[in-house]
Amino acid sequence: MRLTLWTYEGPPHIGAMRVATAMRGLHYVLHAPQGDTYADLLFTMIERRGERPPVTYTTFQARDLGGDTAELFKTSARDAYERFQPQAMIVGASCTAELIQDDPGGLARALDLPIPVIALELPAYQKQENWGAAETFYRLVRGLSGQKRERASRARPIANLLGPTALGFRHRDDVVEVTKLLESLGVDIGVTAPLGATPADLTLLGEADFNVVLYPEVALPAARHLEKTHGQPFTKTVPIGVGATRDFIAEVAGLTGRGAEETGEASRLPWWSRSVDSTYLTGKRVFIFGDATHALAAERIAREELAFDVVGLGTYSREFARELRERAKAHGLEALISDDYLEVEAAIAAARPDLVLGTQMERHIAKRLRIPCAVISAPTHVQDFPARYSPQMGPEGANVIFDAWIHPLMMGLEEHLIAMFREDSEFHDAAGPSHLGAPQAAAPAAEVPSPPSGTSKPDAAAPIWRQDAEKELKKIPFFVRGKARNNTESFARARGLATITVETLYDAKAHYGR
Amino acid sequence: MNAPFVPPVCAEPPVKRGQREVFCGLTSIVWLHRKIQDAFFLVVGSRTCAHLIQSAAGVMIFAEPRFATAILEERDLAGLADIDEELDRAASRLLERRQDIKLLFLVASCPSEVIKIDLVRAAARLDKRLGANVRVLSYSGSGVETTFTQGEDSCLAALVPELPAEPASAAPSLLVVGALADVVEDQFARLFAELGLADVRFLPMRRAGAMPAVGPNTFVLLAQPFLAETARVLETRGAKRLDAPFPLGGEGTTLWLKAAADAFGVSSRRFEDVTAPGRARAETAVARHAPKLAGKRIFFFPDSQLEIPLARFLSRELGAQPIEVAQPYIHRGLLAEELALLPEGLRLSEGPDVETQLDRCRAERPDLTVCGLGLANPLEAEGLTTKWSIELLFTPIQGYEQAGDLAELFARPLVRRSRLEV
Question: Which domains does chain B have, with CATH numbers?
């Protein structure tokens, strides 16, 4: 048993649903009890889909367990075929149905439906959502892509885009952006899958010259299969960030044997990052956590494109732990490979970053610790499906990332002005924001971020601030005062000082200062 | 435990069984854990269970929730792990972090029931091991056994044997059963006090240490219509259940209060005096929304078990016209007074097949469709106006002071659609 408060990934059949819901003309018959129908709302509410996911649940009940749940499955599958007339069907079991061992694959075969029926084995007690999505996509590709065929040499090579699913973090817009990018490189798009593809489209996968793997978590097994069976190479670079996009272009050029001049629009990120307002970003301490693809991309952007210091790097995608560990080592860090929310929370609290780049879960942690945060990865929330075009990949993706990561932080000019005005009578931490009108005093912000509940022990030996030191502390801008207080106290504790003087305050500043 | 099926108000051709589109009982943890402030709900289940509660709770709103899932893994299924040891470990880890927890519920799920993990025994063992500081109880929220709000029924029924016994000589008391928002509970407590009912208790209680006593002089008044099993076990402890409609809308609230007042011999004069201000306020507040809902055809998909009382409220106080009212199951005993108040000619359906019900809904093109979150946006995209029903459980809607809010919840989608020009 594993004690879990919040989960980063759902069970593997949710991954299968993400593939099925992304596609058209595919239906998923899931042997599952009624409660499992909650999954529909992930798609209709979080992603605001205007259609129900193409999933039929058998919704067996306790009274069926003694009877014939297998017959119930067959009826459901037959009815679903008649009602939805899909081009192909996938069948499988959720966690509870796995225990009753009805063999949905065998039962569906016995129905002899006039369409391809692909059986999924998704071990619910071992695997998780992304694995389920990858396995489902692989099974579909293996089942439908057919044999290797001769490919005529073309003036413009063709690439398939693999990996985008329903409920993916910005998948909708990444597809548009990468399509634009590839077309500007003289490459045509063959099949984009699963998002928007039909089972019939999957039979055309073998026509392309190569595959572009957008999300390795979902597409890697399918891409490997296509490489083996159809001799199609696939891209290894995920074009998130300016540098990665440049490398991606070079990789595509290598695959097509054409020049690597990009004709599309360049990202604004390089100049935005070099302009003087961004000077203050130098050395900002960031904590990065997400799926492997987005965490790795964020690490590179943070390091090379924004000159941040990475003080934490981790992922819940165990399948990609090795790559994360290597990257973390370069920063002298131990990568955090975990899907334990409490462990991530503790790591963030310990690292005291200036900015958290994480999932919706880290957004909540950061909120509690009063640290700015930007979301870079699934699991998703309704906010992660913005109305505007908002990719993560390609040149526009880099623009979006610059804005999304920088906005939670104070702007350079703001930081400068705050320092300048900090003694001003109208500018202090108790004054409400001027745009809210009347000079009403806002509640003074608590200076010390409250540690996560239950993890702190009352500290008997908390050092005492001398009055003059307390006064000096007040001269520090309020938005960093909490941090200064914490740092000074841990500095004093580490040295066994019972009292904090002005001296101690500046000693601590010198100690922690970079 | 359901009453035998009797033909519905308007007979319907027998429908063949199909997919149900409802939550399981685990979902009720989302509001129960807010209600009992020192209780913790530990689901013994799968990753799906954890994902369900997390998704039903909307987002991860609470800093550290008072619920968690002990996720079963391969080694638990294969019998390689000792379930007792595993549960001990999970419970200890939780309670170490949360010293404030006084009541721990082990909640059974579909997988734990299918592999027959005996949580009743496990809870008794843990209860003994943890000593007097923490009570440990168990109940089932599994989807093979329970539907959505039935999880609350299951939880409260598990509490009943723990309630202190009250002797037959005790003065009569009223026990209001069903989770209500604290603000609503306080309003009712004030009304009962004004009516002269000296001893009114609530189940669930806000704190584990404040379990209400029960005995032969306890009158039980259900505040929620889905508490059949809880009512039954309370009756086995000698309590007497009062028949009443449910306190939704002004009329429902009055009849509900009246049932208690009558049992306690409150004079009709006093009842009139005490309830008149609330009734008047409810009437005014509801009347504001009546023009928007009068004559509107309303279609209910099965979800919260509140559908029948809501249909009664909408038809009698707002002049709306419910055309189909579906519930996951219909307990005719508890709903007798509600069913009697329903208008003629509507179609009642119990646990219908979602696909054929969608066909009926599309054919009817109702003005307002009340449904779960999985169906709302798809129906909106088809041009239907919807009210998603889970909000009815997370929002205070009972009592006089909330009658207007309740009407507004149904009026808002209609108002919105009429205002939008995009």
Answer: 25-146 (3.40.50.1980), 173-284 (3.40.50.1980), 287-421 (3.40.50.1980)
